[in-house]
């Protein structure tokens, strides 16, 4: 059953206002009266909804669904601005893997440079990708996307997290293979975790020092050095394995 995210709170009847959603529902999917879809509201609760009026784009809620597919912890993936369309790839895949947020910042060794206008346009595109990925993967929430204009703005957000972990290439080179596992071993349900990844050139020593001054811990992701767009997916998969497939988070 097709799923759509709807702004606002659930009520007995809902009228769809978003033009893109309307187009997909009634032009692409060709919904007609009595067809059913799943609508997800701001609280993340899914509802089966039946079309009652095609012209008014109006639905009647049939029943709430109990399924909840979010990770037991809230994971924010933060990447130094990468080249090409790698952020688009990450917006889709990190959403599918359960990230609550995708952030990107101008790292010391980022090759690309985006002004405020380009950042706004890029963020709008990434938000649409995240929305589509959340619908496809039947998420209860859409991953939030934020692109920071400066490192200072990015660093100012560290205090809102319970853990800040940096996937540091030097840790992997030195053979460190236990810090990530140990960090996941003492998390609690709904903890907020910030996972930081460098761009193609990695994280600079100055950046690493700034992160550590704010309480960040370095972790290795195994013996192999992964690409900038691969490491976040590995980390999210490891979190899912540790907290969803082997046991429930406390």
From TrEMBL:
What domain of life does the UniProt record list for this protein's source? Bacteria
Q: Name one GO molecular function term.
A: methyltransferase activity
Q: Which Pfam families match?
A: Methyltrans_RNA (PF04452), PUA_4 (PF20260)
Which chain positions lie within coiled-coil regions? none
A Gene Ontology annotation in the biological process aspect, one of them, is:
methylation
Q: Where in the cell is it found?
A: Cytoplasm
Its biological purpose? Specifically methylates the N3 position of the uracil ring of uridine 1498 (m3U1498) in 16S rRNA. Acts on the fully assembled 30S ribosomal subunit.
This chain belongs to the protein called Ribosomal RNA small subunit methyltransferase E
Q: Which organism is it from?
A: Streptococcus sciuri
């Amino acid at each position: 059953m097709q799923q759509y995210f709807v702004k606002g709170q659930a009520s007995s009847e809902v009228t769809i206002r978003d033009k893109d959603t309307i187009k997909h529902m009634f032009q692409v999917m060709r919904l007609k009266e009595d067809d059913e879809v799943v609508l997800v509201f701001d609280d993340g609760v899914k509802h089966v909804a039946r079309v009652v009026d095609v012209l008014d784009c109006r639905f009647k809620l049939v029943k709430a669904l109990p399924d909840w597919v979010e990770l037991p912890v809230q994971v924010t993936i933060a990447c130094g601005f990468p080249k090409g369309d790698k952020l688009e790839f990450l917006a889709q895949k990190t959403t599918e893997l359960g990230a609550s947020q995708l952030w990107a910042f101008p790292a010391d060794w980022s090759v690309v440079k985006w002004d405020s206008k380009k950042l706004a346009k890029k963020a709008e595109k990434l938000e649409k990708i995240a929305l589509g990925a959340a619908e496809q993967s039947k998420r209860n929430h859409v991953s939030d996307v934020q692109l920071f204009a400066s490192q200072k703005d990015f660093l100012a957000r560290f205090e809102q997290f319970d853990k800040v972990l940096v996937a540091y290439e030097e840790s992997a080179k030195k053979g460190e293979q236990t810090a990530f596992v140990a960090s996941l071993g003492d998390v609690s349900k709904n903890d907020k975790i910030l996972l930081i990844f460098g761009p193609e050139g990695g994280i600079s020593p100055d950046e690493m020092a700034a992160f550590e001054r704010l309480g960040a811990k370095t972790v290795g992701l195994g013996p192999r050095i992964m690409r900038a767009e691969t490491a976040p997916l590995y980390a999210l998969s490891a979190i899912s394995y540790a907290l969803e497939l082997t046991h429930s988070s406390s």
